[in-house]
Specification:
heterodimer; A: alpha+beta; 10-stranded mixed β-sheet; 5-stranded parallel β-sheet; about 40% helix; B: alpha/beta; two-stranded antiparallel ribbon; flat
Chain lengths: ~700, ~425
Amino acid sequence: MVRYFTRLRMRRIYKWGGRPYIFDRKLKSYGFEYLNMSVEGQEAVTTVTPGQYILIEGNDDEYPFVAKLLKFFGDESHKQKKALVQWFLRLSEVPQNKKLLLGRSPHPQEIFYYLGRACDNEINAESILDTPFPEPGTKDTLYVKLSWDTKAFNVLDPVLMQDTPASTPPKPALPLFPPCASPTATPVSRGPVRRALPTPDPTVMRRAGSVSDTRATMSAGKRSTLEAESIHSASKLSASKILSAKRRGSAADTPGVRKKLQLSIGASECLYLRMKELRNSVCFPCFLIQVTPSTPRHATPSIPSRTVPARQPGNILEEARARLHVSSVPESLPCREQEFQDIYNFVESKVMDGTGGCMYISGVPGTGKTATIHEVIRCLQHASDMDEIPTFRFIEINGMKMTDPHQAYVQILQKLTDQKVTADHAAALLEKRFSNPAPKKETTVLLVDELDLLWTRKQNVMYNLFDWPTRRHARLVVLTIANTMDLPERIMINRVASRLGLTRMSFQPYSFKQLQQIITSRLNKVKAFEEDALQLVSRKVAALSGDARRCLDICRRATEICEHSTSHPSSAGLVRMNHVMEALDEMFSSSYITAIRCASLQEQLFLRAVIAEFRRLGLEEATFQQVFVQHRALSRVEGLQPISVSEGLAVCQRLGACRLLLLEASRLDMLQRVRLNVSQDDVLYALKAVRD
Amino acid sequence: MSKRKVKETHMPVGECISQVQMILRERFCHQRLPEKPVGMESQHKHLLELLRRTAVHGESNSVLIVGPRGSGKTMLLNCVLRELLEVKDVNKNVLPVHLNGLLQTDDRIALKEITRQLNLENVVGDKVFGSFAENLAFLLEALKKGDRSSSRPVLFILDEFDLFAHHKNQTLLYNLLDVSQSAQAPVAVIGLTCRLDVLELLEKRVKSRFSHRQIHLLSSLSFIQYLDNVRSQLSLPQDFPDTNFYDEWNDGIKVRHFSSYPQLVDVLQRHYNSSKDFRSLHLLLMLALSRVSASKPAIKPTDLLEASRVCMVDSKANILHGLSILELCLIIAMKHLNDIYEGEPFNFQMVHNEFKKFLQRKSHSIHNFDKPVVIKAFEHLQQLELIKSMDSSTAKIQKEYQLMKLLLDHSQIMEALQKYPQCPTDVKQWAMSAFG
């Protein structure tokens, strides 16, 4: 039995084997025939030769990289051991937005032949994991069927897999890819597969039996040919788990281990169906897996879909309203051309060079910061699809969308690798990922929205975010967004602010011309507004905040008012000045004056009493008791029956609830202090209008 | 046959009365929705249109309904929802989520409640929700997955909206409003609040994402309309089983009955002056209704007068009537101290001295009390919260020297003395004299 060991505990020793031959005279490098790997203190030696499929140490312990070994070479001193490899990708390594291109749910053990150029195919030979591969036909077998060239999945060209290794592998039998692994050859090999009876394979059963009885039985009809049709390898973790289970199982049959293993299998019933589907297109080993039904590990939540489809806009005003909604994605982003270009150049140059950097973007809400960056990323993604720049990954986090600043690590890691871990662990993993050189690495573009929310007392989250890009192997571009221009100076300690650097950009509030242009471009020839009406809205908003969202909302409201103003919705014409005025009034006018006018008589009297008492005291604050004395006097003047103290307190509380008055806690009863929340002039103006 | 018919239309009076009680109580206490909201037609139309567009077109919206307490915000919203759900297409298409700022006091609880009301917890099966962070990510993912045309619109109804603005970072509001402004599952965020300054509570980022639609419910009800309301609230519905009783009852609350009692109009005017909202009106009518019985099968103006008297009564007057003579004397002493020192706080020793002065100089009927007895009386007043300690309770000051303030107005004391049963004349005179 081969001894297994984990990388964390053992130190591996790598030794060249065979006779060196000159590989490149100029570079003075030597080629080698095979590599012997052993573990300190153990005698077992694993030999790897070119042509074998190997696992390579990566960021993720559970899923090491998969590659095919092409060649070994090293320098004269034998210090550096290098290897040339052909990469295979797991689906988790494919960018999130490209996964849909596959068009089906992948087999969990499926890998893809990598045809891209972004990854360095020269690796350090010492990162090869020497985990022995299990017997062919176990569930850890990996399958390859398609190739991935960073843009699309293609059917694998059989020629690529034809090059068989020169020497036969010595120990763990690594199956070779046969030339028949192409769809054209399917009908030939499919026949026997389908007819094959599920006869349990003794070796598989032995393995499965030691782990769990219910787990898997495999139909391995026509084993000898099928084995040869796939790459077999084992995920390191599962292999070591099986072993540890075996070890423990020999001593005492612990049910805990068994349970854990069942979970780690995590296969669902649909696997069988999926396999069937796969089998129809390509010759795969035929599996028949019986699994106890369990809930999927990563359930995808969703809002239930509606029974009746949403109605499409019917007339011009509805069309305009749909286009003016903030959520609708515009065809272009006008008025931010300069900012767009700057950000584009920044990110593009970093992606091209494979370096990292930070950028800080500030601006008041509603000035198009996030929208511009999304637009930049869209363009860059397009460019990388057109092969103009290397591929990169885009990740977005938002300080407001997390409960705690440290959740940033968790979210970044989850978006990078689909792992779910705790914040501390995620920080450690990210640290490792960004500080170690890794063979296959593309640039990551990270957008941090609402940066100020990531502030912690020690500022370690911000520190890390800005420190990682400076690492040599990180290839990380961080774009940060916040509202205030001087945020780095105000809240960041020196070492954080210094790492953020001085690449800053601020988005000015839109001017009225820009706002007008934005609306016009959104409407895009839908004639729903009068020219003057648009100008009024843009001028008003530009004067107040320059918030494009506000502008769009007002226009939307104006279309509604326009629609309601006519009796029949279809006869409604253009949105005119008066509609816009009404919408502006609704949204910007303060409601205090109307509220005072609509208040009951006693409430109005109380407000007058408050002002009278303020004048008497010369202060802007009085106790309820003092105001109430005034109130009584006033009601006598007005010829009203004076109210009791309880009623007076109720009146006072009602005004306090609307926040016309500011009150102290009501347990102070008569001694609570009263202040006005509106200016005295406003109150007097409102009350005077009532009496007239 | 005919006998039975007669029986059907003429129920015994007791049964009629219990029917009346049931119908009207449901109206006053159970917040039964009226057929149509009164006096807020334009607001009703605005809100209905808005929600209909969310339900039918999948357009995301956000709106605030602002109005003083008792102005009918919830009533309006419930009427609109009822009307909206009657539409056939909408009925099975919207998912209302009701949250209340008083119940969901922080975002963690609010998120749990949203997940529960959206029935999303079924998706994860028996897996228990882990942390707050997971919960938030889960919900956001769920909302992000949806899109305008295919997923069911969610109506988030946030009662006491202002309290949500006090949650940490306003995370929930930011996320809900952000969803309403981006191409995700269609949502309508409806906030109900009585604070007019609610927009100032929102953080600038949250505020920018809010659409700034506000529906103000400020009733400009005139007194005539108010009287109409009183009548319509008291009148029986058309389908009342006993027609005779129905006619009698509705006749009893006609206009001429009201106007023939100027006193009644006065009382109602006073109520109208004090507050126009329906809540206080319902309280008044409820008290009047409770005086209706089988022996007195109609609401008389006197019932309303009596109910109004109960409504208007000062809450502290009854407490004062229940005090002992000694306690009353102490309160009078405090009143004099307040006059002398212009509302400065006093302590027990000062009150006791004042009281002793009174005993020596003017009193004929009251004997001297031991100091411990007086202290006990003083403590009783403090327990009744007629006086309140000004120091923080932690301070180690002897009871006699703790500074106190009187929580009574002069008018309240004088009124209570007038009505106090068998109050000694010398005490009354002492109270009325300018200085102790």
